[in-house]
């Protein structure tokens, strides 16, 4: 077996890497959103502007048997790195995972990273029971659980129309007239880029991070626009709703659902919903998510479910999601090791 860097121009290796993901999804979490071949291939040639990425495959007798993605922040949190490590179900317990893990750790060390993470499926409450093999593998190699996120799924029509209208009316009443609700599809309107960059910069300071040692990152207009360019190149369309404080003109709450430009793909993905601490208590989070849900149904009629994950301790957002009809599927454990 050899580990080689994945060349995006090598169609056979790209197909092999995707097949590993497809087979692992079928074996480990078939209830979760399936990997998307087009999105995967486009991601290889459209890296995010604020991360350095590397892709490797484990090849045995000409067959791709494992896949490793490495992400390293390149603007802030330069001590940190993460990876996705997947071994084809038919080639497990043969040392492939350990070889890929060793490759990841050596790669991260060589680039000065001192804290790295890998994640794996976990069972949560009455959700789907998940195999503990991934967790045991990481613990065997010295990783410790740093953050648990709960994966939930919501049908876009989970609420009956009357209940949804009632929730929306009450949320609008709680928000009052202090806020202008603005929605769009695709790129952020140019006049909102600066204020959106400001609120995006608060995310790591506001969301629960467990034992992860991450500092808030500064998002500027250049990064904001570069991320929009990448979404367009990858066929990802955000559907977004924000609350702008009328007195200050600043966006103080934000939510977005990310959809694929593929009518046959029935899943969409809830991004971070955040409300400026100074403007909490007005039910802005619920209001924005309800408005945005209607936009998803209207503009992406093929989408059947929206997926979200929240830290297990993020009670306020979990409460909103339960009201909207989100149901537990499983959990993701982010395991950390110090190098």
UniProtKB/TrEMBL annotation:
InterPro entries: Acyl_CoA_acyltransferase, Bact_Acetyltransf, GNAT_dom. Pfam families: Acetyltransf_1. Keywords: Acyltransferase, Transferase. Residues 1-166 form the N-acetyltransferase domain. This is GNAT family N-acetyltransferase. It comes from the Bacteria. Transmembrane segments: none annotated. GO terms for molecular function: acyltransferase activity, transferring groups other than amino-acyl groups. The keyword RNA-binding does not apply.
């Amino acid at each position: 077996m050899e580990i080689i860097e994945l060349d995006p121009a090598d169609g056979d290796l790209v197909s092999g890497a995707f097949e590993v993901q497809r087979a692992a999804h079928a074996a480990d979490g078939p209830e979760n959103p399936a990997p998307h071949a087009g999105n995967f291939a486009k991601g290889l040639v459209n890296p995010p502007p604020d991360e350095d990425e590397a892709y490797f495959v484990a090849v045995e007798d000409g067959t791709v048997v494992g896949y490793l993605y490495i992400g390293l922040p390149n603007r802030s949190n330069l001590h940190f790195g993460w990876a996705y490590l997947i071994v084809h179900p038919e080639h497990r317990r043969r040392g492939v995972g350990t070889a890929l893990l060793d490759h990841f750790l050596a790669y991260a060390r060589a680039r000065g990273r001192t804290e790295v993470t890998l994640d794996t499926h976990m069972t949560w409450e009455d959700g789907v029971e998940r195999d503990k093999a991934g967790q045991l593998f990481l613990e065997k190699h010295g990783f410790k659980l740093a953050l648990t996120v709960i994966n939930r799924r919501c049908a876009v029509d989970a609420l009956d129309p009357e209940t949804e209208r009632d929730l929306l009316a009450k949320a609008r009443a709680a928000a009052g007239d202090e806020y202008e609700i603005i929605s769009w599809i695709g790129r952020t309107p140019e006049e909102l880029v600066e204020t959106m960059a400001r609120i995006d910069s608060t995310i790591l300071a506001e969301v629960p991070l467990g034992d992860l040692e991450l500092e808030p990152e500064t998002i500027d207009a250049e990064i904001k626009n570069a991320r929009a360019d990448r979404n367009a190149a990858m066929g990802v369309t955000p559907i977004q709703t924000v609350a702008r404080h009328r007195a200050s003109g600043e966006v103080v709450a934000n939510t977005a659902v990310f959809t694929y430009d593929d009518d046959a793909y029935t899943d969409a993905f809830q991004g971070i919903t955040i409300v400026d601490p100074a403007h909490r208590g007005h039910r802005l989070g619920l209001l924005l998510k309800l408005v945005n849900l209607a936009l998803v149904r209207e503009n992406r009629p093929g989408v059947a479910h929206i997926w979200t994950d929240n830290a297990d301790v993020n009670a306020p957002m979990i409460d909103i999601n339960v009201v909207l009809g989100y149901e537990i599927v499983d959990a993701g454990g982010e395991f950390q090791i110090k190098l």
